[in-house]
Amino acid sequence: MPKVKLKDGRAVLVRRFEMGDKESLVDMYASLSDEALRWAMPPYTREIIERWLSNIQNLIVLVAVYDGKIVGHAQILKYAHARRKGTGDLIIYLHQDFHNVGLGTAMLRKLVEVAAAEGMHRLGLHVIADSERAVHLYEKLGFQKEGIMQASYLGEDGKYRDEVVMGLLLP
Ligand SMILES: CC(C)(COP(=O)(O)OP(=O)(O)OC[C@H]1O[C@@H](n2cnc3c(N)ncnc32)[C@H](O)[C@@H]1OP(=O)(O)O)[C@@H](O)C(=O)NCCC(=O)NCCS
Question: Is 13 a residue whose pLDDT tops 90?
Fold first, then answer.
């Protein structure tokens, strides 16, 4: 698979996750800065990551690899219920050394492409309204704002924030 060239010149491999990547994924989450986790739902412990991976049959997982380490993780959890066939929810986290240089765009484009190729028809996500870079990225990829969950997320400053529900219908 060709590497993705980032805006700062670094070349990163974006590929499907393999079970042998688990320790590197745990390490990436353990090394995320407070800023990277500002609008997230920490902690992302080994236990949480192993719980995700125990459901691997319902996941599409991409990782970004630089210098032998995982520096980005994007995944779709496909809903297993027959009434939710073809739908799933998406998350993405990048190591702080790789923010704002185009990696999120590249990973999400690839993830949407894989989801479409696997016959999915709807991707959804939740994002904190203040997470402006993430909202911009999702809108750039074609996700639409579908609703607001008012004051549903307690920020680290003790103030409640709105959460935006977004969705993308695949062709
Ligand atoms: C959110 C995240 C996935 C975005 O990925 P990224 O690689 O940093 O984003 P990219 O560089 O591909 O694109 C960022 C875009 O947002 C724009 N942007 C940057 N800061 C912005 C801001 N404060 N407001 C609006 N747009 C902003 C950039 O200009 C760029 O847009 P463009 O491509 O149209 O020029 C990544 O920063 C991240 O992992 N953050 C921490 C975890 C997180 O918040 N995850 C999402 C939880 S829902």
Answer: yes
Give the Å distance between the CA of 131 and the centre of ligand 1. Answer: 9
| 134-159: pLDDT as tens digits | 999 999 999 999 999 999 999 999 99
Q: Is 0.70 topped by the overall pTM?
A: yes
Cα-to-centroid distance, 136 and ligand 1 (Å):
7
- Domains in the chain, ordered, with CATH? 4-120 (3.40.630.30)
Q: How far apart are CA 41 and CA 44, in angstroms?
A: 8
Cis preceding-peptide flag for 43 (omega within 30 of 0): yes
Residue keyed to tokens 């989450």: 29
Pairwise CA distance, residues 2 & 85, whole Å: 32
User: 64 in ligand 1 pocket by Cβ < 6 Å?
Assistant: no
Amino acid code (one letter) for 112? V
